[in-house]
Amino acid sequence: MTDALSADSASAAPDDRVPSVLRFATELIAWVATPWALADRSWLLAALSVVVLIGLPTVLATPGDKAKVIVAVPGWGTVLLVLLQLAAAVVSSWVAWPVWAAVLTSLLAAATLVTERPRRRRLLSHGGAAPGAPPGAAPE
Predict the structure, then answer these.
(1) In Å, how far from its chain's centre is CA 90?
(2) Given CA atoms 59, 26, 88, 113 in this order, what sign does their dihedral have?
């Protein structure tokens, strides 16, 4: 019976491997390009950018979207964090890198935006509550 339940829940879960890989690749670019772009202006801003870009998504998460939540935020908070990562990757790549690398980063970010739509809809429709919770429920 346990196998049947796990099979049902696995088939009901959206396949988000491709969006996750694209999002992670864009996050990696943001983590590298942003401090690189800021290093000429201030080493402190460069270090702070790493803390913000890696630290905030590590600490803040929407229940039901991530297995381990340290500080719960509504779904729109997670969406804003992803948009921050994408914007940082694109803007910083144009500042710090050659045009060909910035173009590839921009295309990757655009692909991430498109493939993340189902996750974004889910996060915004549940208001940050765990999936299956009644609409308007507070994050767990």
Answers:
(1) 14
(2) negative
